[in-house]
Write a structure and sequence with these properties.
- By secondary structure, this protein is mainly beta.
- The protein contains one helix and eight strands.
- The chain has one helix at about 90-95, and strands spanning about 20-30, 30-40, 45-50, 60-65, 65-75, 80-85, 110-115, 115.
- A six-stranded antiparallel beta barrel has the order 1-2-3-6-5-4. A two-stranded antiparallel ribbon has the order 7-8.
- A hairpin with a 2-residue loop joins strand 4 (about 60-65) and strand 5.
- It is globular and about 55 Å long.
- The termini are far apart.
Length: about 120
């Protein structure tokens, strides 16, 4: 009997990603679309939106305290990945946008049985 071993693909990013929920505008070829920055790193961002540009398209991402050019490097049904042309400070950007609000409730889960939490 043959056996196969698979290893999980290791994260190959050199820079940390930071979760965010930042309203922004993505501009390309005379089009401006509202988007949400879902996560961001020094040189990249995950963008969520209804209508997004194709892979290879050069764009400008605009948010509070941010205006940076980038290129779409991958796309999905409602999201795309941008490679930014210049370095950004994700922590400062999230702070300016209120991405780490202290008024959000904390949710704590407790184990109430085998594989059950409440």
């Amino acid at each position: 009997m043959d056996s196969w071993t698979y290893r999980a693909r290791a994260e190959q990013r050199q820079e940390s990603r930071f979760s965010a929920e930042i309203d922004a505008i993505l501009c390309w070829d005379g089009v401006s679309q509202p988007v949400i920055i879902r996560n961001i790193s020094i040189y990249g961002a995950l963008i969520i939106g209804g209508w997004l540009p194709p892979v290879g398209q050069r764009t400008t991402l605009i948010a509070s305290g941010l205006e940076v050019c980038g290129t779409v490097i991958w796309e999905g049904p409602d999201r795309c990945g941008l490679l930014l042309t210049s370095e950004v400070d994700p922590v400062a950007l999230i702070g300016k946008a209120g991405g780490q609000s202290e008024d959000r409730p904390t949710i704590t889960l407790q184990r109430v049985g085998p594989d059950r939490y409440a």
